[in-house]
Amino acid sequence: MNDPHLWWYISRASAMIAWALMTASVLWGILLSTRVLRRVDNPAWLQDLHGYLGGTALVMVGLHMVSLMIDSWLAFTAAEVLVPFATAFKPLPVALGILAFYLLVAVQGSSLMLKRLPRRFWKGLHYASYAALLLVSFHAGFTGTDVGSLWYKIVSLALISIAAVAVTLRIIAGKRGSRSATRTDADPAATPLHPTQRDMVVASATAVADGVVGIRLERPDWGVLPVWQPGSHITLHLPNGLQKQYSLCGDPANRHEYDVAVLRTAASAGGSTWIHENLVPGMSLAVSGPTNHFGLEPAADYLFIAGGIGITPIKAMIESLPAGRDWRLVYVGRSRQAMAFVAQLEADYPERVIVHARDENVGGLDLDAVLGGPALTAVQVYCCGPESLMDAVAARVPAERLHLERFIPVARAARPAAPIQVLCRKSRLEFTVAADENLLDSLEAHGVPILGSCRKGICGTCEVRVAEGTPEHLDSVLDDAEKNSLGVMYPCVSRSLSPSLVLNI
Ligand code: FES
Prior knowledge:
It contains 14 helices and 18 strands. It has 505 residues and is α/β, with parallel strands linked by helices. It folds into four domains: 175 residues, no CATH class; 96 residues, Translation factors (Elongation Factor Tu (Ef-tu), domain 3, Beta Barrel), CATH 2.40.30.10; 105 residues, Nucleotide-binding domain of ferredoxin-NADP reductase (FNR) module (Rossmann fold, 3-Layer(aba) Sandwich); 84 residues, Ubiquitin-like (UB roll). Helix 1 runs antiparallel to helix 6, helix 1 runs parallel beside helix 7 and helix 2 runs antiparallel to helix 4. Bound molecules: FE2/S2 (inorganic) cluster.
C-alpha cells in the first residue's frame, strides 16, 4: 500500500482487464447470436456468462476512472474523467474512452432492464457495444502512459485481432442467418399460410429447465401481435407437418413477443422432439392463435396446482393477477432441475408458492391436505399438468370451482356412430356425414371454412356454433355444460345425439 505507484498500477491493470473483458463479452455475444454457441438446449449460463463479462468490464472501467483520480501523479479531476475534452492530456483519445464508458453503461443498464424495455430498443442499444469496443481500442491504443512498450503492443494487437475476427464472423453469419430466416424450412408454395396463421421468427431458444426449452417468438417486422389473456395457447405449425399447441407463459402486456416453453417428451409424436432437435433462433414458423379455453375467471381466492410443464399457463395467470387477490400455487415436479421457472416463482412469491419436488419428498403430494379445509371451499381451483394429477384434483373439487387445461384427450365413451344430416347455414351447404366418417373431415371435404389443429378434441381450434340439434360432446376442451350454454361443439371428435345438426358456419 505504500508503493507511490500503486494507483497507477491499478489504473493500468484495470484498463487492460476492462479491455480484455469487453472483447471477450462482445466475442461471446457474437458466438451466441450466430448460433455457434446458441443451440436449443444451451444452458442458461452461456447467456449469463456474456452478461457477467460485460458487467465485470464495466466495473473495471469504473475502477480505472477512480484510480485515475486517486493517483497523485495522474491526478485527474472528476470532470476530466467524466466529460469529453475536459482534459488537456490527449483530449481526443480520452474523450473516446469516456464515450465508450457511457455506451457501456447504456448497454449494461438496458440489459438489466430487459424485461421492461421493448426488445427492439434493447437490441438496437446492444449493437452500441461494437461501437464501444471500437472506441475503447482507439482510447487504449493512444492514451496509456505505457503504450510504447512491447508487451502492450502485443496485447493490443491480440485484442484488436480477436475483435476484428469476431465482427467479421458476425457479418458473415448475419447474412446467412437472414437468408435462413426466410421461410425455407417449410416450402411456402407447398404450405400456404391460412388467414389465421402468421409467420413468426424464433427470437431465442434457451433451456429453462432440464428437458424444457423456452422459446420466444416475434414477428419478422417486429409488428404488434394479437392480444391474449392468461391461459391462452398458440399453435406452432412445424415444418414436419405437425401442429402443436403450447400455452403462452410470458407477459400479456408485451405486444411484440410470445413466450412458450416446450418439454421434450419421451412419447412425443414428433413435435417436442423436432423442436428440441431442430428449432434455432432466426428460424421462421407459422403460428396460429392465441386461443383461450382456460380463462381466468374473476374471483377473490385462487388455488393454482401445476404439475411439470403445466406451470406455463399458470405462470401467466399468477403474474397478471391484480393486486388484492389471494392465491396460492402448489407446484409439483420430478425435481427442481426439471421444473421450469421454479426459482423465479419462489423468489418472486416466497409466501405463496409451495414446491413439491418428488426427489426431495418422501411420498406423493397430499392432495386432500392441499384441497381440504373450510377456507378452501370458496376458492377457484386452476390445475394443469399430468392427467393423473388433473384426474385426482377433479375427483376432489366440484366442477363449478374447477378449471382444467388438458393436453391429452380424456377417454370418453361414445354411442355407436350413426349418420348425421348436416346443414351449414352460412355456407349454404347440406350433406350427410356417414357413420364411419369424421365430422370435421367431412366439413373440410365439402369446402366449409373451418380449421382443425390437434384433431383430438383438446385445442379448441375447430370450434363451431350449433344453431339446432344436440351435439354429442366427445372432446376435452370445456366441460359439457359450458359448451351447451355457449352453444358450441368441436367436430374433430364430437358427433351428434340428434339425427341432424344445423351449424352456424
Ligand atoms: S382440432 Fe383441436 S379441438 Fe378440434
